[in-house]
Every structure is written in structure tokens, then in C-alpha cells.
């Protein structure tokens, strides 16, 4: 911590959905948290506003094309600004940082997550793609208590394990809202639009994860994420539809007892817990009144219609470099769907074709994963072009 006892925070991706909610947590707990460094990819005006509000001394802009953007002239006096992906990593591992929130989107977060762990900083990880792609490399780097999950389900599972013996757990129930297309047949899914897919029933999130939540790829990625975080296999992690998103996940123990985590559907709660752990601070969000909640509904996911969940299962079971291909192809296909160049169900077709073409290898290094990521993106772009 700094001289005044506050935890010194860096936020990578401060302009996104998670990033801005993290700023709000820091605003509400300014006596406990000090923001010392911020990054954004391209939204320079928002970055400058946050740097001014929190009087930040260092920022980085990862999209180098923003170098020279006139908006940067309004940075607070004495605030240093650097450009490029490496600049964000350098800023995260500098001496005056205690804890880094990685809230950038996609596999772009992997190199930063690795550097943060190796530098001995606390890593508050929202970027699930880091673990999906590079969990085999990241988990051995993490000391106990160093990596704190921000993904709401994984924060919930982490809390359901507290004070328990992990070897006496029987299963993890990973909850899923079901997304906007719960109950749809494959035929109905063929026809959904971008606007339909962006209307998530319970969470307000960035565009990429919102589409992933509609295809259920998000839940597939989260299953792989859970395997890495909690050292279990795919069979151990069962997907459970919980329509209201009020149960954030559960752990079932040998004796049949099931410990669940409940609360408001508000990401500021798991973000704050990653900063406050092992303490709990006053809530950043409205509390749930269970007297007026009504019912909790459960169901089973339909992996026949929602093929992405099935593909993630194959990738998770196979392991090695296949999750890297799954993730990279999915990033390209989701961007194509958002651009209107492929259909909703093309997303799983594109991902599957890339997975089919890949010779799986054991994960060896960040460089190897970066090469395979590039290959899969090229291959997915070709598959998109062939469909449009
Ligand atoms: P978002 O699109 O709203 O924000 C993304 C952030 O990443 C922005 O600050 C942007 O500047 C930055 N960014 C984009 N491309 C980048 C690149 N190539 N290099 C560096 N930075 C880049 O996304 P989000 O919804 O905030 O999600 C961020 C991460 O958190 C994702 O991995 C997502 O899966 C995870 N997550 C999000 C939620 C949620 O509620 N939004 C919940 C759980 C997990
Ligand atoms: Mg989640």
C-alpha cells in the first residue's frame, strides 16, 4: 500500500463496462483505494476525464494510432502518457502499483496478466480470455491469494470455497442467465439480429461479452476459466440456467450440502471484493430484498441449439492449444456478426471450422500462443469472407 495506507490500483481498460464500474468502486471507497495508473485502447476523451478526476500520474493508450490525439493535451499536469500494448504492461508492473485490474477485452489481456503475476502484483482478473487461452501458463505463476477473479460466477465460486476443504467438494454449479434467446430452437437462432442479441436480460456489458452471452460461448469460456482457477476438470463444472441471475454460482460438497452465492446483479460487487479481499466493505450497489424477489427459476442449457457451449466443452476437454483457437476464432466471428458480415449461427460454424483445422499442441509459451492466435484469426477471417 501507499504511505497513506490506501491500496494503489492500476486499471487496464478503464473505459469499458468493467473499467468504468471499477472507477465507480474507487470513487465510493476513495479512503481505501488510490488509482495510480490507467489505460484505454482508443477512447482517449474518457481516459483523460478519468485521469483528471482521480489525478492519475501515468496513463497508456494501447492503440498507437491515437498518438498525437489533441484530447490528450487535457491530461492533468505532470501526467505521463505512453502508447502501445507494451506501454500498458510497463505501467502495470511499476513499483508504485499494488493491484492491477485487467478489464481489457479478448486475448490481448494475456501478456499483461502474465507480466503482472510475474512481477508479484495482485491481479484482479476480469479478462476471462487470459485464462481460457493461457491458463496452463498463468496458474503456475500465481501465488496463493495473488489472483482474484472478477467474473461474477468465479468470484461467487471463490467465496463458496472459503473456509471449506476443496478436496471435499463434489461439483461446481456454474449459473447462466440463458441470455436473450433462452428456449429458442436452432431455426429461430438462424434469424436473430444484432439488436436482438445485444439486448441481454439481466446484465449490461461490453458488446463482445454480450454477444458471447447470447451464443452461450460466454458460459463455455467460463467453464474453462473455472477449471483453471479451481484446479478441476470439465465434468466437475456443471452449467445451470438461473434466469434471474440472482444466484451467481454454487459449490456442492460431498455430504450433499450446496453453498450458493446470492446478491444483486451488479458487477461492482465482485470488482470491489477483488480489491477488498479478505475484507468486505460497504456495498457499492443497491441490496436485494428477497421478500419481493418472487421466484428463482432453473433449467438446463440446450447444447444442440447453442453450439458454442458444445464447442467450448470440446476445447476444454481437449486442452492444449485448442482453447486458444476457440477464443481467437470466436473473437473474429463475433466482430463479423456485429459488423453485419455473418449471421448469428455462423459464429459457431466459423469457430468449429477453425478448430477442425488445428493440430493441437501442449501449451509451451506466450509466443507459441500468440502465433496460434494469429493463425486462427486469419483462418476465421477467411471463413467469414467465404460466408458473406
Ligand atoms: P468493453 O468492450 O466494455 O471494454 C473493453 C476495454 O478494453 C476498453 O477499456 C477498451 O479500451 C479496452 N480494449 C479493447 N481492445 C483492446 C486491446 N486490443 N488492447 C488493450 N485494451 C483494449 O468490455 P467489458 O464488457 O468491460 O469486458 C472486459 C473484460 O471483462 C472481458 O474479458 C469480459 O469477458 C470480462 N467481463 C466483463 C463483464 C461485464 O459485465 N462487462 C463481466 C464479467 C467479465
Ligand atoms: Mg460471468
Describe this structure as you would to a colleague.
The chain has helices at residues 17-28, 44-53, 85-92, 110-118, 128-141, 152-161, 186-190, 194-198, 207-215, 217-230, 268-276, 307-318, 322-339, 346-356, 366-387; strands spanning 7-12, 33-40, 58-61, 80-83, 99-102, 122-125, 147-149, 169-176, 237-242, 247-253, 258-262, 298-299. The chain is of the alpha/beta class and 388 residues long. The chain folds into 2 domains: 7-150, NAD(P)-binding Rossmann-like Domain (Rossmann fold, 3-Layer(aba) Sandwich), CATH 3.40.50.720; 156-265 and 292-318, no CATH class. The strands form 2 sheets. Strands 4-3-2-1-5-6-7 form a 7-stranded parallel β-sheet, sandwiched between helices. A 5-stranded mixed β-sheet has the order 11-10-8-9-12, with helices on one face. The chain is globular and about 55 Å long. The model has no long low-confidence stretch (mean pLDDT 96). Bound molecules: nicotinamide-adenine-dinucleotide and magnesium ion.
